[in-house]
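Weekly sync, protein design subgroup
Attendees: M.S., D.O., the rotation student, P.L. (late)

Item 1: inverse folding check
M.S. brought a backbone from last month's batch and wanted to see whether the design step gives back something sensible before we order anything. D.O. pointed out we never logged the input encoding, so this time it goes straight into the notes. Structure tokens as presented (272 positions):
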């Protein structure tokens, strides 16, 4: 199938925010197509609508205008089968072991016990947590807890994985290593990855294509192709093109971020 796996046509989102409610144009219009199996990253100034874009694709919030298709079918208000979302917050359950956390999503499937156990054990080995199956989240580092959350999504075998700043709370070295792991999982599962990040080097290192968003209402002002080989890891930061790509992202983003800061100054509000 050559058709796009995800297709956004003229998508906009306007919230009703504040008291009395005022329309707040958060996103769009956006046109975007994701091909099956690609790694697409999104960068953009704070508050430009990145999370809103992810939520619209995931069916967590409806678009106000335009159409979102996933594998040819319209997204209608709920996360369809075949998609998995990972958020920044550590969303693991403190009272469940690592294996129980990962098995949690499978409770509504009709897989039998053995199949569930096999899936959980495969995914734990994929994210490097086999030795921690019976540990509780509180006994793990931040990076490991985030891997539990990723494993919980992967166990459902999604064809599209959406991640909203999943490594935002981790230190730089852990972030690079988690990036390596994400690349490995991406290759092994064959899933499409849609990653939101505020770290330009992370986007450059990980993605096949990077969408740069404008200040709110977020639109795609640039889409950069990295042309990296599929088999890559964090050592790609040594590549001669790495700096040029990151610089191009920053050139576009700097102007947009300055607009956001200028707007906050004018209104005396916080930098959102
Ligand atoms: N549920 C909501 N109701 C009202 N306004 C919202 C809601 N969600 C997000 N917004 C607003 O939409 C804009 C974009 O938010 P968001 O998508 O979270 O930005 P980002 O993820 O790029 O930081 C912000 O101004 C935010 O305050
Ligand atoms: Mg966000």
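Designed sequence read out in the meeting:
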């Amino acid at each position: 199938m050559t058709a796009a796996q995800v297709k956004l046509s003229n998508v906009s989102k306007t919230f009703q925010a504040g008291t009395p409610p005022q329309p707040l144009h958060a996103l769009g219009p956006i046109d975007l197509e994701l091909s099956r199996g690609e790694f697409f990253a999104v960068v953009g100034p704070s508050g430009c609508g990145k999370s809103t874009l992810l939520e619209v694709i995931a069916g967590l919030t409806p678009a106000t205008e335009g159409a979102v298709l996933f594998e040819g079918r319209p997204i209608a208000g709920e996360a369809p089968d075949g998609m998995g979302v990972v958020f920044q917050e550590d969303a693991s359950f403190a009272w469940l072991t690592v294996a129980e956390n990962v098995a949690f999503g499978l409770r509504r499937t009709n897989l039998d016990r053995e199949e569930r156990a096999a899936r959980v054990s495969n995914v734990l080995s994929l994210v490097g947590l086999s030795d921690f199956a019976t540990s509780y989240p509180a006994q793990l580092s931040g990076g490991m807890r985030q891997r539990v959350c990723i494993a919980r999504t992967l166990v459902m075998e999604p064809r599209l994985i959406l991640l909203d700043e999943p490594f935002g709370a981790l230190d730089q070295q852990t972030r690079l290593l988690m990036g390596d792991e994400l690349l490995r999982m991406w290759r092994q599962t064959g899933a499409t990855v849609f990653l939101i990040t505020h770290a330009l080097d992370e986007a450059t290192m990980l993605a096949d294509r990077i969408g740069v968003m404008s200040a709110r209402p977020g639109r795609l002002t640039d889409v950069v192709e990295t042309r990296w080989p599929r088999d890559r890891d964090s050592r790609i930061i040594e590549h001669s093109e790495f700096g040029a790509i990151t610089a191009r992202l920053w050139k576009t983003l700097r102007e947009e971020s300055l607009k956001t800061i200028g707007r906050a100054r004018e209104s005396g509000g916080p930098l959102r």
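Discussion: The CA atoms of residues 114 and 120 lie 10 Å apart. The chain is about 35% helix and 25% strand.
Action: P.L. to compare against the previous round before Friday.
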